[in-house]
Write a structure and sequence with these properties.
The protein is mostly helical. Helix content is 85%, strand content 0%. It is built from four helices and no strands.
């Protein structure tokens, strides 16, 4: 699997997880997917610009931007939390299942 394919799959899988989390939290599905995609993009940007910062800075930027975008879209804290949980859960499932089969 090439790095661009891996990158696109992470975006898709986490966006689906965020959308499902939004649905379970009572928010619109597109809001969850959009907040998740913005958070992932910010996390990847931090990871590329500050590689010495490590995974914690990437994860923190991801959650921070996800929360800011979710708040800007009018989501409540419970809904933002369920979006973040869904995206993280699907992201971990992706790495546990797909990565172990491909690599």
């Amino acid at each position: 699997m090439t790095p661009p394919t891996h990158f696109v799959l992470i975006f898709i899988v986490c966006a689906v997880g965020g959308a499902i989390g939004a649905r379970l939290g009572g928010a619109a599905v597109w809001k969850g997917a959009l907040a998740t995609l913005a958070g992932i993009a910010a996390g990847e940007l931090v990871g590329k610009l500050l590689p010495e910062a490590g995974h914690f800075a990437t994860f923190a930027a991801n959650l921070l931007i996800l929360g800011v975008v979710g708040g800007a879209l009018g989501m409540h804290g419970r809904q933002i939390g369920s979006v973040a949980f869904g995206a993280i859960l699907f992201g971990f499932a992706y790495f546990a299942l797909i990565e172990s089969l491909v690599y």
